[in-house]
Model the fold of this input.
Amino acid sequence: MMLSCISKSQRNSNQWNIRCLQFRSMHFIFLILIKRYEKVALEY
Done:
């Protein structure tokens, strides 16, 4: 996914970069939530 972001950023750069940043930040938050959930699951 990151590679497609880089390749498409050369044309339509501003709009696509904003979309990429939104996707990456959402993905990052999603990973944090998964790790937090795994910690809680391991405690039980």
Remarks:
- The chain has one domain: 2-43.
